[in-house]
Amino acid sequence: MLITALLPFSNVTFCKLSCRNRINDGGLLLNPNSCTTRSQFRYSRSNPSSGLSSLRLIPESRSDFGRKLVGCRRLWTSSGIPQASSSSDGAIDESKPNKSLKLAVVFGFWYIHNIIFNIYNKKVLNVFPYPWLLASFQLFCGSLWMLILWSLKLQPCPKIDRSFILALLGPALFHTIGHISACVSFSKVAVSFTHVIKSAEPVFSVIFSSFLGDSYPLKVWLSILPIVFGCSLAAITEVSFNFEGLWGAMISNIGFVLRNIFSKKSLQSFKQVNGLNLYGWISILSLVYLFPVAIYVEGSQWVSGFNKAIETIEPSKFYLWVMVSGIFYHLYNQSSYEALDDISPLTFSIGNTMKRVVVIIATILVFRNPVRPLNALGSAIAILGTFLYSQASVKKKQVEEEKGE
Hints:
Radius of gyration: 28 Å
Order of helices and strands: EEEEEEEEHHHHHHHHHHHH
Structural class: alpha+beta
Distance between the termini: 38 Å
Number of helices: 12
Strand order of the largest sheet: 1-2-5-6
Number of strands: 8
Strand content: 5-15%
């Protein structure tokens, strides 16, 4: 008994029934080691109902015989209907225009949400300089958003237990530290300066991970040198510089690095919880951590600060700014998780580097912060170092995965 498998451009190869290997959608994958008939055929379709009408024998070279159907441009069924192309793992590939469009949409939302958050977050802090309350409100918005998604079943609600909450306490604590420290920095210095300092996060990641036993190749260590130099140059030439803003950004880096490290170590057994659900629970726990401390730190100043704020701008405008900063804080984090799900780690790291550049440029244009030439040079060097680090670290991860296989 012969099985007909249709190759690209309507070529067919005959092989015995025993040589077939099934792929995902029921198609057949030729096994060159067990096929016996080494001839190639072309067909011309003249009868639509039968799909195949005539076959003409064409000799085929031994080197091309038994070519796999995997990766072919088009598969044909017996009715002559073209099917989507198949990838190396049997999954159906999307067409290139669709993938490019999807990538553009993912990056577009990610960047736009981030820019809007940074602009309105700074607008609020300019008239209401109480970052502890604002940071708490932003976590509240994220928590409420996720609870609505779960209750309406727009997002699958994860099945959690006491062990999951206990494992999440550490990452949530460091997320809280990272978030409030960044808000404090935003309230003290220009948004662009905070983002330049936050580009030094890879430096802390390498240092802390090394202390915990990870090893890094020389390329990774060399890539953090321009980050250190660029951030130092940007700091000493920053017009809005003050130590409180600098230390806020630095502590934010430490907080987020430790969050990532502890998440990797403590959440290994909870891989069934996807990234968005994980971030939702981190937001809820972070709110529980932060709000009581916020009341203690600056609660007595909120009423007088609010009265001054609504004297400066219209109350409706102030409420709008606060709401936008809270909603888009969650949306940009949600967009980043969705981007990470849809693209490779390398593409994500490049996109994250470029996102910081876009945010820096956008906030400089909106708030018209003065930028000195050396300050711009230092920022560019730091961002370049971040890009080089992302390239080196992704290659390191790929090498480790290949060794693991």
